[in-house]
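FAQ: What does the model actually see?

It sees only this:
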Amino acid sequence: MTKRTAARAAPLQHDKVPFGKPTLGAAAAPRSRLEDDVLKPLDPDRLNDLGECLFTLNNRRYGPIPGAYVVVCIEEGRRWCVGQLCADRTKPLVLFEAEVYTSPTVAQARAEEIRASRNEALPGRNT
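And it is asked to produce this:
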């Protein structure tokens, strides 16, 4: 078995870049503890698919998507964190650890404030 076939036969790991998949942008930086807690239980194949969709929606560019701020529940019913969608196979979500709130409405308002302060429009496809 060659290195290439062994790499293909090995299960996909969350903290590794998928074999043969080019990654740029956020993949260069390791996941934070908070991002790992949120993303680790998810199916890596679906994360890969999500990254590909975000890559397409971001006009075939890797990295954080301008204006695509989201609120993620990090502790069920208790804590929410503001994050940004990222066109990347291994890290489709960048969470801002300093932006953790106890109310989803406060977190949503903060996400909108961040978008407005950076003068970013809601993401959309350019044709």
